[in-house]
């Protein structure tokens, strides 16, 4: 064990997840690459769990952050905060939420927590509908709505949570149904839940489940849910922490694949928008955002430095059409990975949208998850200089590929070739 790993284990919690038998210490990055403390170079196909949205050490973000840090680092509220107003205006416009208000947080967890605060206060109900296999964060209330048991360490939630089918296609009682029948079955399941309770405050869902293994429900699932929600006056919260900002290629927001009737009532975001700086937040129409009848502040949510990062990063993303790049390069990458997996009896599915691609591994000839092989593929890829992620439901048997959105075709091919070899070597 290297010395830093030893020190890590002595002082940090056991439940703080680390990848690899010999954990990596990453010391710097540039573009789509990172380097470890021993000087080894890696092509980064996971971007620190989709945190590096555009590129590592993007010069515009570095410049904006260092200039702002040299000028002022101060509390984000109590005084007028120009970069916060500017980023809020841009996100409000991009969100398409009518009469939108934006509140900034320091993480996705806190964004979802805020969404729950708003929804429960607005609807005067502490019941929440959440999806099976979902992940929404690590606070007391966020673990209470997280359907993925592997990431939900206590059941003593302050909320009553009802879990709905629909986030996962490859497992569960509806796995063999086609899209239309699958959506109909999930809608029936939702209606059945609602028949037994006072109307919940909201349904929260990731348009593509991230930690749960990049599972894509059929397009239109949430539009079908929404008809039911509307009938009961239940809000729809889209957790766009992983799917926002063009990640899925065809759309800027993940919800757009589902619902052509317009934006959700509440949208939460985090991760990539700050390109590694801690920017999260909530968008809601003012009637919902302003339903709280007590004051609030946030010392760090929306500080000048993180807002400067968000503004520079968003400008770069839009000016370079990185959403289009995610669609084009992601399309090539998924085809290549599908071809590589076609002859592999241990690959159940290669799925995804844009630069959010999952490879689900099962023990050949069975439906049983294969977390051992997933771990072996991660190690094999690392040995050849490629970092990927893993995720999935009750066991982590889905390989996750989510590089920075500026990935080039040559880098996609290089990474795909390494993954092909890692898959072949672990059969
Ligand atoms: N929601 C989703 C969909 C996520 O993937 C995550 C983080 N993996 C979170 C919320 C929590 O975000 P954070 O780690 O910034 O608290």
Automatic annotation (TrEMBL):
Entry keywords, A to Z: Aminotransferase, Pyridoxal phosphate, Transferase
**InterPro entries referenced in this protein's UniProt entry, alphabetically:** Aminotrans_3, PyrdxlP-dep_Trfase, PyrdxlP-dep_Trfase_major, PyrdxlP-dep_Trfase_small
Highest taxon of the source? Answer: Bacteria
Q: Which SUPFAM superfamilies does this one have?
A: PLP-dependent transferases
Cite the Pfam families for this sequence. Answer: Aminotran_3 (PF00202)
- Asked if Transferase is a keyword of the record, the answer is yes
Q: Which cofactor does it need?
A: pyridoxal 5'-phosphate
Which terms in the Gene Ontology molecular function aspect does this entry carry? transaminase activity
What Enzyme Commission number(s) does the record list for this chain? 2.6.1.44
Q: How does it assemble?
A: Homotetramer.
**Family to which this protein belongs:** Belongs to the class-III pyridoxal-phosphate-dependent aminotransferase family.
Recorded protein name is alanine--glyoxylate transaminase
**Organism (species):** Streptomyces phaeoluteigriseus
């Amino acid at each position: 064990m290297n010395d830093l790993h030893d020190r890590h284990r002595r002082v940090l919690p056991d439940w703080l997840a680390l990848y690899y038998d010999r954990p990596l210490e990453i010391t710097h990055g540039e573009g789509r690459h990172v380097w470890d403390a021993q000087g080894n170079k890696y092509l980064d196909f996971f971007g620190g769990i989709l945190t590096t949205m555009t590129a590592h050490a993007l010069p515009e973000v570095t410049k904006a952050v260092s200039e702002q840090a040299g000028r002022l680092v101060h509390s984000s509220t109590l005084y007028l905060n120009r970069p916060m107003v500017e980023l809020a205006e841009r996100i409000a416009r991009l969100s398409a939420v009518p009469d939108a208000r934006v509140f900034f947080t320091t993480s996705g967890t806190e964004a979802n927590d805020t969404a729950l605060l708003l929804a429960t206060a607005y609807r005067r109900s502490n019941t929440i509908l959440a999806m099976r296999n979902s992940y929404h964060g690590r606070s007391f209330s966020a673990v209470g709505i997280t359907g993925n048991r592997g990431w939900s360490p206590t059941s003593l939630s302050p909320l009553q949570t009802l879990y709905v089918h629909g986030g996962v296609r490859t497992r569960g009682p509806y796995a063999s149904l086609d899209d239309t029948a699958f959506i109909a079955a999930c809608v029936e399941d939702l209606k059945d839940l609602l028949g037994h309770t006072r109307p919940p405050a909201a349904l929260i869902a990731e348009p593509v489940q991230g930690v749960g293994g990049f599972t894509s429900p059929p397009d239109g699932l949430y539009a079908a849910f929404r008809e039911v929600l509307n009938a009961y006056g239940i809000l729809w919260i889209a957790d766009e922490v992983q799917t926002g900002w063009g990640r899925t290629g065809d759309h800027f927001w993940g919800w757009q694949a589902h619902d052509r009737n317009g934006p959700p009532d509440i949208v939460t975001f985090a991760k990539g928008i700050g390109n590694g700086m801690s920017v999260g937040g909530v968008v809601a129409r003012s009637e919902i955002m302003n339903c709280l009848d007590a004051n609030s502040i946030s010392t760090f949510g929306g500080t000048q430095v993180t807002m400067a990062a968000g503004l520079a990063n968003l400008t770069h993303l839009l000016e370079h059409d990185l959403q289009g790049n995610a669609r084009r390069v992601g399309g090539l990458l998924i085809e290549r990975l599908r071809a590589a997996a076609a002859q592999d009896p241990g690959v159940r599915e290669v799925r995804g949208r844009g630069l959010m691609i999952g490879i689900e591994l099962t023990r050949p000839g069975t439906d049983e998850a294969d977390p051992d092989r997933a771990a072996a593929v991660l190690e094999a890829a690392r040995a050849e200089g490629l970092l990927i992620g893993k995720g999935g439901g009750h066991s982590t048997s889905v390989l996750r590929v989510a590089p920075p959105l500026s990935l080039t075709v040559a880098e996609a091919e290089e990474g795909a070739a390494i993954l092909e070899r890692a898959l072949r070597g672990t059969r």
